[in-house]
Amino acid sequence: MLHRKSNVPFSGTKEQEQALLKVIQELKDEKGALMPILQKAQDIYGYLPEEVQKIISDETGIPMEKIYGVATFYSQFSLSPKGKYRISVCLGTACYVKGSGDIYDKLMEKLGISGGECTPDGKFSLDACRCVGACGLAPVMMVNDDVYGRLTVDDIDDILAKYE
Amino acid sequence: MKSLDELKVIREKMRGEVGYRVEHKTPVDIAGAAASYLAANGEKWDTSYRAHVLVCGGTGCTSSGSKRIAEKLEEEIEKQGLKDEVCVIRTGCFGLCALGPIMIVYPEGSFYSMMKEENIPRIVEEHLVKGNVVKDLLYEETVHEDEILPLQETNFYKKQHRVALRNCGVINPENIEEYIGTRGYEALGKVLTEMTPEQVIQTMLDSGLRGRGGAGFPTGLKWKFAAANDADQKYVCCNADEGDPGAFMDRSVLEGDPHVVLEAMAIAGYAIGASQGYIYVRAEYPIAVERLNIAIGQAREYGLLGKDIFGTGFDFDIELRLGAGAFVCGEETALMTSIEGNRGEPRPRPPFPALKGLFAKPTILNNVETYANIPQIILNGPEWFASMGTEKSKGTKVFALGGKVKNIGLVEIPMGTTLREIVEEIGGGIPNGKKFKAAQTGGPSGGCIPAEHFDVPIDYDNLMAIGSMMGSGGLIVMDEDTCMVDIAKFFLEFTVDESCGKCTPCRVGTRRMLEILDKITKGQGTMEDLDRLEELAEHLSSNSLCALGQTAPNPVLSTLRYFKDEYIAHIVDKKCPAGVCKELFTYKINPDKCKGCTACARVCPNSAISGTVKNPHSIDSDKCVKCGACVEKCRFGAIYKD
To answer: Are B175 and B182 in contact (CB under 8 A)?
Structure first.
C-alpha cells in the first residue's frame, strides 16, 4: 500500500478541531481507542494530514510514530485529500472476471490520473476497491455513495458527465 | 428487563406477523394455539395487516435501487388507501442478487424480480387492491403457463437448505420482535436456564459444527479450550471482516438477521465464561454496521444484552469495532491486534487465543456464519445438525455464487452437494452458451477447480484434497474466456497488496512470484520459471507467519496443477489461449466477413485500422493498443483475436 504525503496545504477549521477534541475526550479512555479516533477524525477532516495526527498524539499521549504506523497500515485511511467526487472501481474477483479492469484503465485515461490520486481541480479522485458486495451487478463502480452496475467502457463518459 | 415468559408472549404475538412468511400459513391458520396462549397471559391476538410486501434491503438490491422501490410502494399504498391493510417491510438478502431489486408479496408469496419504479402502480392496483397477481412481472421461473410455482420449487431455491440464512429476506432486521417471532433469543433462554456451560460445549462438539471462516476448526473444541483457562476476564469475538473478494455471505447475515449473531455470541459467552464481546466488522459494509448498531441497542433495551440477562445473573455485552480495509485482519491474531488499536499484524501462535488472545486474555473468535448456526443447534439439538452434510463436514454452507454464471447470488446448500449441482442447477449454468472452465473457491487462499472435479461432493476435506479450500465461501465461476495464468496473477496482486509486511517469506515471496507470473503473461517466461514458482510456493507455505502467506501460493499451485498447458502455451507458444493477456494476441479482421462499413476505423483511438468503404479493412498490429473498441463496434463479427 502506497501512501503519499499530500502537497495540498492543510486548511482545517476551528470547528473541525473542536469536533475532533470532543471525539478524543469521549473515546480516549476506551481500550484500543486509536482506530475509532482515527476513523472519526477522518470523518471530520476527510483525510488524516500530519496536523491532525499531531493533535491526536498531543491529546492521547500516543506517539506520532505509532499513529502514523496505524494510519498508513489500513487502506481506508488517507493521508491526502479526496476529490469532491470519489470514484472507486471494484476490482474484486467477480467484477474482475467481468471486465472491471478495463473500466479502471479507462477512468485513469479519461481523468488523467492514477489510482489513489485526485484531479488537480479537486473534483475527482480515483481508487480501486475490493468488492463492494454488489457482485450481482458486476462490474461495479461507485461515485461517492452512488453505485453504478452492469457497466461497459462506453458508459463512463455519461456517468462522469453527471458530475461535471 | 424481559423475562422468559415475556419473551414467549412477544413470540406468540408476532407469530401472526411473521407466520405468513416462515410457516407459509395465513394468520387464521396459526391463530388458534397462539390466541389461547395470549389470552391466558392477558394479551390479545392481533393481526393487523392482510398483506405484507417484503422488499430486499440488502446491499445488492439497494445498489440496484430497492430503496426507491420501497418508497414508491409506500406512496402508492397510501394513495390507494391501503395503509392499514398492507405493510411494506425492508428485509435482508433473498439470495438472488442478479435479479434485484426483488420484492415478495405475502400471503401468496409472489416473487417479483428486477422491479422498476414505473411498474409499481400497476402491482399495487392489480395485486394489492384487486387481488390479481401480475404474472408478467413475476420471476419467470415461478410462472408455468397458468400455474404459479412457490419460490421453493424453482431451480435456484429447490436444492437449497436455509439454516444460517433462515431469516434473511424473511424478517425485518431492524425489528427485534420479528426476530423473537421466529424463536429468536429462545436458545439463549434455554442455555441460561436449563444448561450448564459444559453441556453447551458438549452440544457444540456433538453437532460437528466447524468454523465457517475458512480453516474449518471444530467450534466446540475452540470453546472447550477457552473455557478451560481461568482468567478474570475473557472475550468472545466475532469475525465480520469478510475480506475475500467476491464473498458476501457474512454481510448478508448481518444485514438480514443481525440478532442471530448477538444471540449466539451471548451463548458463547456463557459457555466459556466471558462477559464482553466484540464484533469486528468491515467499514465497507455501511448497511450491516447500521443494522448491527440498531440490533445491539434493541437487545440492550429488551434486557437481552447487559446485566443479569433473564434474571439469571449472567452479564454479557457487545461492542462494535470497525475495520479499516486490511485483508490480513481476517486472520484471528491480526484481528485482535487491530481491535487493540495497533497495526493489524498477526502474532505467532502459540500462545493460541484460547489462552492469550484479545488484551492478552482467553478469547474465542468465530465467524458470522458459524454464529448464525448456533441458536438453531441449541433449539433443534446437535443430532438434527449432524444429520445434514457429510461424514466430517456437518450442516450446510453458504456460498456467494458469482462470476460467469446466470443466477448470481447467495446459496445455502447441505455439505456434500456437488459443484455441478451448484453451477448447473442452482446457478442456472453459464450464460451466452460458453463452456465451464473452472470454479474458484477460497478466494486468495484457495484454488481453481477444473471441470474434471465437477462431481466431487463439496466439503472441507474434499476441497483440500483437490488443491482448493472452503474458505469463507466465495465461489466464482469461470468460463473459456478466462485465462488461468491471468487469474493466478490477479490473486497474487491481491496478496502482494495485502501482505502486512511483518514476515519476510510472505512480503518478499509473494512479490517474487508475482514478478514471475507477470513475465509469463507478457510472453517472456521460461520453463524454469515454473520450477521456480513451485519452489517459492513451498517456501511460502512452510515459512510464513500466518495463513495469508501460507496459503498465498494456492491459486498458483492449483492452476499449475490443472491448467499447466495454459502456462506452457504462454511460455513456449507465446499464446494466451483465452485471449486475455494483451501482449500475446493481435486483433485481425476476417476479410470474408468484413463489409467495409468503416465503423471500426472510426472508433479506433489510435488510427490503427485502414481500408476504404465497402472493402475489407485491416489492422496495423504495431499501432494497435488492443483496447477492443473495434470488436464492440463491428456488427459482422469480423474482428477476432489471433
So the answer is: no
Kind plus residue range of the DSSP H or E element containing B448: strand B447-450
Asked if pLDDT for residue B526 goes beyond 50, the answer is yes
Is the minimum CB–CB distance between A35 and chain B shorter than 8 Å? yes
Q: Which residues does chain A have with pLDDT short of 50?
A: 1-3
Q: Looking at beta carbons, which residues of chain A come within 8 Å of B63?
A: 132, 134, 137, 140, 147, 149
Phi/psi of residue A155, nearest 5 degrees:
-75, -15
- The domain made up of B484-571 has a fold known as de novo design (two linked rop proteins) (1.20.1440)
Which residues lie across from B479 on neighbouring strands?
B436
How far apart, in whole angstroms, are the C-alpha atoms of residue B69 and residue B295? 24
The nearest alpha carbon in chain B to A105 belongs to B627
Q: B396-479, which class in CATH?
A: alpha beta
Q: Spell B363-400 as b/e; 16+ CB within 10 A means b.
A: bbbbbbbbbbbbbbbbeeebeebeebbbeebbbbbbbb
Q: Residue B476 and residue A36: Cβ atoms within 8 Å? A: no
What would the DSSP string read from start to end of A114-160? -TT-B-TTSSEEEEEES--S-GGG-S-EEETTEEE-S--GGGHHHHH
What is the structure's pLDDT at A6? 57
Cα gap B429→B451, rounded to integer Å: 13
Instruction: Detail the DSSP E strand segments found in B204-313.
Output: 235-240, 276-281, 306-309
- Going from N- to C-terminal start, the domains of chain B cover 49-151, 176-386, 396-479, 484-571, 586-641
Name, in order, each residue with C-beta under 8 angstroms of B158's C-beta and a sequence gap of 6 or more.
B152, B425, B426
pLDDT digits (tens, 9 = 90+) for B239-251: 999 888 788 899 9
Cell of A128: 480501486
Which of A138, A143, A134, A71 is CA-nearest to residue A98? A138
3-state secondary structure of B459: coil
pTM for the full predicted model: 0.90
Q: Report pLDDT digits (tens) over B327-367.
A: 999 999 999 999 999 999 999 999 999 999 999 999 999 99
Q: Which CATH class is domain B49-151?
A: alpha beta
CATH architecture designation of domain B586-641 = 2-Layer Sandwich (3.30)
The whole-angstrom separation of Cα B366 and Cα B315 is 20
The tens digit of pLDDT for each residue in B335-344 reads 999 999 999 9
Record: contact A74-B325, CB cut-off 8 A:
yes
pLDDT band at B88 (very low <50, low <70, confident <90, very high): very high
Q: Which positions in chain A touch B632 (Cβ < 8 Å)? A: 152, 154
pLDDT score of B32 more than 80: no
Q: List CB contacts (< 8 A) between B324 and chain A.
A: 35, 38-39, 74-77
Q: What is the pLDDT of residue A2?
A: 43
Measured between beta carbons, the chain B residues lying within 8 angstroms of A77 are: 324
pLDDT in tens, B466-517: 999 998 889 999 999 999 999 999 999 999 999 999 999 999 999 999 999 9
C-alpha grid cell, residue A141: 463502480
CA–CA dist A161, A111 (Å, integer): 12
Are A74 and B324 a contacting pair at CB < 8 A? yes
